TrEMBL record:
<dbReference type="InterPro" id="IPR036390">
    <property type="entry name" value="WH_DNA-bd_sf"/>
</dbReference>
<feature type="binding site">
    <location>
        <position position="326"/>
    </location>
    <ligand>
        <name>DNA</name>
    </ligand>
</feature>
<feature type="binding site">
    <location>
        <position position="182"/>
    </location>
    <ligand>
        <name>ATP</name>
    </ligand>
</feature>
<feature type="binding site">
    <location>
        <position position="76"/>
    </location>
    <ligand>
        <name>ATP</name>
    </ligand>
</feature>
<dbReference type="InterPro" id="IPR008823">
    <property type="entry name" value="RuvB_wg_C"/>
</dbReference>
<comment type="similarity">
    <text>Belongs to the RuvB family.</text>
</comment>
<feature type="binding site">
    <location>
        <begin position="139"/>
        <end position="141"/>
    </location>
    <ligand>
        <name>ATP</name>
    </ligand>
</feature>
<comment type="function">
    <text>The RuvA-RuvB-RuvC complex processes Holliday junction (HJ) DNA during genetic recombination and DNA repair, while the RuvA-RuvB complex plays an important role in the rescue of blocked DNA replication forks via replication fork reversal (RFR). RuvA specifically binds to HJ cruciform DNA, conferring on it an open structure. The RuvB hexamer acts as an ATP-dependent pump, pulling dsDNA into and through the RuvAB complex. RuvB forms 2 homohexamers on either side of HJ DNA bound by 1 or 2 RuvA tetramers; 4 subunits per hexamer contact DNA at a time.</text>
</comment>
<keyword id="KW-0067">ATP-binding</keyword>
<feature type="binding site">
    <location>
        <position position="321"/>
    </location>
    <ligand>
        <name>DNA</name>
    </ligand>
</feature>
<feature type="binding site">
    <location>
        <position position="77"/>
    </location>
    <ligand>
        <name>ATP</name>
    </ligand>
</feature>
<dbReference type="GO" id="GO:0016787">
    <property type="term" value="F:hydrolase activity"/>
</dbReference>
<keyword id="KW-0547">Nucleotide-binding</keyword>
<protein>
    <recommendedName>
        <fullName>Holliday junction branch migration complex subunit RuvB</fullName>
        <ecNumber>3.6.4.-</ecNumber>
    </recommendedName>
</protein>
<dbReference type="Pfam" id="PF05496">
    <property type="entry name" value="RuvB_N"/>
</dbReference>
<keyword id="KW-0234">DNA repair</keyword>
<keyword id="KW-0378">Hydrolase</keyword>
Amino acid sequence: MADGAIDPQDLGERLVGAGADEVERAAEAALRPKKLDDFVGQRVVRDQLSLVLQASIGRDTAPDHVLLSGPPGLGKTTLAMIIAAELGTSLRVTSGPAIQHAGDLAAVLSSLEEGEVLFIDEIHRLARPAEELLYVAMEDFRVDVVVGKGAGASAIPLTLPPFTVVGATTRSGLLPAPLRDRFGFTGHLDFYEADELERVILRSAGLLGVDIRHEAAHEIAGRSRGTPRIANRLLRRVRDWAQVRGDGVLDLRAARAALEVYEVDPIGLDRLDRAVLTALCRRFGGGPVGLTTLAMTVGEESDTVETVAEPYLVREGLVARTPRGRVATAAAWEHLGIEPPAGTWAAPAPTTGGGTGATSRTLFDEA
Ligand SMILES: Nc1ncnc2c1ncn2[C@@H]1O[C@H](COP(=O)(O)OP(=O)(O)O)[C@@H](O)[C@H]1O
Ligand SMILES: [Mg+2]
C-alpha cells in the first residue's frame, strides 16, 4: 500500500469490514506475528496450542490436526502460519473454494512432504467428494489415486507421510460432524478485548515505525469491533491523517480527526451501520420491520445488510432479531441520541460494553 495521502480509493466501501482484499493482504503480511509468543490475546487458545505443539516436537511426530474457528480477521491464518513456523516446517496453503474436484485435493495431498502443514482455509466450503477424500487422508494417511477411465478405472491406494491439517472456518456450525471429529484440537477464536487490541495496535505501530501515543491506540482500539484486522486498518488510516494533516505523530487528536474523516464512529459503526440504525429508529419507529424493507430503505441489498451490518449491530446489543422483524433496542436510541417514542419496544441495553448483552445473544443464538 502506498504511503502518504489519503486515497479515496482506499476508503473502500467498508473501512470497518472484517474481510481483506488483495492489497490489504500484502499490508497485513508485514504485521503478522511470526511466533506464538508474539500473538496477542486469545490466551486459552494460545496455551492449548502451545502444549499441542511442544508435545509433538518432544515426540518428534506431526501434531494432531488443528481446527481454528471464529469470525474473520481474528487471526486464523496468522495462527496457521505460526504453527508451521513453530514446528520448523513449511506451510502449504489452499482453501475450500479453491478445491473444485476431489482430484485437486488428491494432487495436493500426494505432494505433501513429511511433517508439512496443510492449511485449508474456509474448510466448510469444501465440496463433498473432496471432503470424503480428506477424511481418509487425515485418519489413515492414505489417498486413493484413480488411474484409467470408465470401466477400466481402478483406485490405487497411496500412503502419505505424516502431516498436519490446519483447517480454518468462520462457520464451524456448517462443518459436518465426521470432518469436525477428525481434528484432534479445535481452537475457537473470540473477539478481542479493547486492551488486547490496544496491544495489537502498539505492536503494529512499532513495526510500521510510527510514533503513537497510548491514548490514540486506546481510541482506535475502541472503534475496531474486537477485530485485529480492523484495528490494523484504522491504524493505517490514522497514520495517513497524521502524515498529511498533522505532524506525523499519532496522538488522540489525529486518531479522532482521522476516524471522523472516515466516518467510523466512537463504537466502530460506519455509515452503513448508522444508516440501518437510523432508518430502523426514525422511519420505522424502532421496528419491528422486515429485513427486506429495511434494506430497501437504505438502498442496499438485503444480503449486504444481513451479513455486513447486522451481525455487529446485534452483537453490540443495538438491534435485536425477533420473529416479527428487526427491532431497535434502548441502546440504539441512546446511541443515536434520540428519544424513543412512547410505547416503542425497547430491549434492555447490554449488561457490559463487550457486546455480550443477554438479550442480543439469546435472540442471536435462536436465529
Ligand atoms: N493475536 C494477534 N496479534 C497480533 N496481530 C493479529 C492477531 N490476530 C490477527 N492479527 C492481525 O490481523 C490481521 C488479520 O489476521 P488473519 O490471521 O488474517 O485473520 P483471519 O485469518 O482469522 O481472517 C493480520 O494482519 C494479523 O497480523
Ligand atoms: Mg484468513
